[in-house]
Amino acid sequence: MTLILASKSTSRRTLLKQAGLNFKTIAANIDENRLKNEMLKLGSKISEISEKLASEKTLKISRDHLNDYVIGADQILTCDEKLFSKAKDIEEARENLKFFRGKYHTLTTSVSLAINENIIWCYTSEPRLKMRHFSDEFLEEYLVKAEAAITASVGCYFIEDLGIQLFSDVNGDYNDILGLPLLPLIQKLRELNLLNE
To answer: Per the residue annotation, which of 74, 89, 173, 176 is the catalytic one?
Structure first.
């Protein structure tokens, strides 16, 4: 039996490694935008969409790795009741960050666990973060310095890096903000006897 992380996220891999877990990583490439749009049309809640995306990633890998436990995760950013995806380029990142400026946004973060093509557990948290009223000058400097964070993260930031300078208030577990509710996951793995008591 192997533990598999169904993600290519550097942050999620790092969190699991730092927690001392032994696992392998296999990226689960699903059409996230199609699934989001379908569920939004059906009137699904953001938490339901996040859980569905996490579960679909988990199940995709589980189909080819029976008898292994698979972890999948997803995170959706909403601000002023608007759902955001990763910025396509620096121009879209600039507009998104201007929209977030001075406002709270929510990171609906889900993690799921599957074995033998069955979801056996799912957990969702919703950290809230407020971006400060940064200047346009600061924004332009940030866009130059942030590099990969601009299009690799839904909020155009890595809070564990330069992105922390964007914020005035943060409410929620740090791991959840990074994209993986780690404490509930570890507790579940312990209940399944995958970690020592």
So the answer is: 74
